[in-house]
Specification:
GO terms for molecular function: electron transfer activity; heme binding; metal ion binding. The chain has 610 residues and is mainly α. 70% of the residues lie in helices and 0% in strands.
């Protein structure tokens, strides 16, 4: 009994010796996964630098697309998929059949690394993304065949459903093409398709996989977490219902927030049924365990618990609205899931399985990675809370965020280098990659078929993301043959038809406007002329009438649906401005600050009103 209690109190041991993790394929797999994580961190660091010193020739949204695609499809997909492969696939011959998938995923991800920063969504980036998607279908099919050899324990059921949700998430990607072609890239359904993919990819594919691996880790210690059909059904239901929150970003219907609240409560119950027994067995009383690898898993488990607790707060509609209108919260929550739960939870399991090294270089890499994660999360959630409380900004916030983010590539470079040390893992037979690629391409006709199938899919996707010709832009409703091009009202659409600017600048109003703008706008817009998520504010009163500016602030949903100028800006930035329920009085204060900002930066203001 004392020995058992010791193990239970301080750490979980992975006692099963799995030869899969000693294969050369697992070594290559994890090297590429960490390399893509390192690359994604460099893109992320560049995104931080946009708010510090700009980034020259690169466009913010192109770098953002590169960062998100490489993080999700490079690091996240390879880590989760590889962990499932090397944990559950039986037999070395069967394991070798996954080489072709690794090669395909590596080639397509490298293609995305090169193409997205240069062109954003374009011919080559869509090509590589589509091939990756199609190959993932064959990958899922092969995983299902290998998992069919197991009985329906809790771990296997969760992993199977993880793969199912991965396939379900891809529906959103295929919906982008018809939504963009027939409705336009500024239609809410276009953005909803993207959110569908992200929601089921992260909260379905990734979360179910980490729950399955945690369950397997306990089962390997002779313990188990029983999930009845009812509890598992509630977990599925909560995943579907909580999609109402991202849906509310595109459709401002209050009932969606109530649906999300129901989903969050069901999710809290389902998570409690799984996580609380898991934590009770692995980390009693949430005590920090001994051993650095156990601490890595501990951070992942606590991050998953925090995700569930944070979402409980979203049962309050006002809190749900704040969760997506304050961008720091959005980024912080995504990182809590991707960096916290997935990276540390799954990564710690892989280290215990001998799939990642345990040497000193790796150890310090993971420790620095945890420091980077905790410090940046503190800044993101801390600054978001200050904005919500109308308490201003942390001094040098963007600089501090950039400096702490430097720790990410530094830590990942150490982990990557540790994978090339001789003593890092185990003796493996190193083969020439070029010979492997040649042999696999010759002997596996399935890969050729996959590449051919992707060509047809690419033409479909190009219909919505192609060359930018007018025929591809779409409209909300198909125009009748006799319809004429709509002329933009310079005052916009809304109840604000006349604005008295007065003489000079009202400093009191401008100060109020700056406080509101800091709270609701500066996460996406800068006060200069540089575009990040949205266009820069500099010169706006010289380009747009004051009525248009105030209508855009107070009547954003209608403006995005009916105003040609607002629609053109949305199509350019591809990020829908949320309705933040700003009053007319507050919008007038914001306008006053924008006038002051233009006068200070350009020497003039209100040119559009003259």
């Amino acid at each position: 009994m004392p020995d058992t209690m010791h193990v239970s109190q301080f750490h979980i041991e992975y006692r099963q010796e799995n030869p899969n993790w000693k294969s050369s394929l697992s070594l290559y797999w994890m090297r590429w996964a960490v390399f893509f994580f390192f690359t994604a961190s460099l893109f992320g660091l560049l995104l931080r630098y946009f708010f510090v010193g700009g980034a020259g020739i690169f466009e913010y949204k192109h770098v953002l697309h590169a960062h998100s695609h490489v993080a999700l499809l490079g690091w996240g997909f390879l880590l989760v998929g590889g962990t499932i492969v090397f944990t559950f696939v039986k037999g070395q011959e069967r394991l070798r059949s996954y080489k072709k998938f690794l090669i395909a995923f590596v080639i397509t991800t490298i293609g995305m690394i090169i193409s997205f920063p240069v062109q954003g969504y374009g011919l080559f980036s869509i090509f590589f993304s589509t091939v990756h998607l199609l190959v993932s279908y064959f990958f899922a099919f092969q995983l299902f065949k290998d998992l069919s050899k197991y009985s329906n324990g809790t771990a296997i059921r969760l992993v199977r459903f993880a793969i199912i949700w991965m396939l379900v998430s891809s529906i959103g990607l295929w919906a982008i093409a018809p939504a963009g072609a027939f409705l336009g890239k500024i239609h809410p359904l276009y953005f909803l398709s993207v959110q569908w993919f992200l929601h089921f990819q992260m909260n379905g594919w990734f979360i179910y996989a980490i729950l399955g691996i945690l369950s397997f880790l306990l089962e390997s210690n002779g313990r188990s977490i029983q999930m009845s059909n009812l509890k598992l059904g509630l977990l599925h239901l909560s995943l579907l219902l909580t999609f109402a929150l991202p849906a509310s970003w595109s459709y401002n219907f209050r009932f969606l927030l109530y649906i999300n609240a129901i989903g969050v409560l069901i999710q809290a119950f389902a998570y409690a049924c799984f996580l609380l027994p898991c934590i009770a067995q692995a980390f009693p009383k949430l005590k920090i365990p001994s051993g650095w690898i156990n601490k890595v898993i501990y951070v992942g488990t606590i991050s998953l618990l925090l995700k569930a607790l944070i979402q409980i707060a979203l049962i309050i509609p006002e809190a749900a609205t704040i969760s997506y209108t304050i961008r720091m919260y959005v980024i912080g929550f995504i990182h809590l899931l991707m960096l916290g739960a997935i990276t540390f939870g799954m990564g710690g399991f892989v280290i215990k399985s001998k799939g990642l090294p345990e040497n000193k270089l790796s150890k310090w890499g993971w420790i620095i990675l945890i420091i980077a994660f905790v410090s940046t999360e503190f800044l993101l959630f801390g600054q978001g809370t200050l904005i919500w409380a109308k308490l201003g900004f942390i001094p040098h916030y963007h600089l501090l965020l950039f400096l702490t983010s430097i720790l990410f590539p530094m830590a990942l470079l150490m982990i990557l280098l540790s994978l090339f040390q001789r003593e890092a893992l185990y003796p493996v037979r190193i083969t020439v990659i070029k010979e492997n690629i040649t042999q696999i391409l010759i002997n596996n006709q399935a890969m050729k078929k996959t590449m051919m199938m992707s060509l047809g899919a690419i033409f479909l996707l190009l219909a919505s993301c192609g060359s930018g010709s007018e025929s591809n832009k779409g409209t909300y409703t198909p125009p009748s043959p006799n319809s004429k091009e709509k002329t933009a009202d310079p005052k916009g659409i809304g109840e604000i038809r006349n604005v008295d600017l007065g003489n000079g600048i009202d400093e009191a109003m401008a100060n109020k406007g700056k406080a509101i703008l800091d709270m609701k706008c500066t996460a996406c817009h800068q006060l200069n002329d540089k575009r990040v998520v949205g266009p820069g504010f500099q010169g706006i009163t010289n380009r747009r009438r004051p009525e248009w500016i105030m209508n855009m602030i107070t009547n954003v949903d209608v403006m995005l649906e009916e105003d040609p100028v607002a629609q053109a800006l949305l199509e350019e930035c591809l990020t829908r401005m949320p309705n933040q329920n700003i009053s007319i009085g507050d919008s007038r204060d914001i306008l006053e600050f924008l006038r002051k900002n233009d006068f200070e930066k350009t020497g003039g203001m209100d040119a559009a009103a003259k």
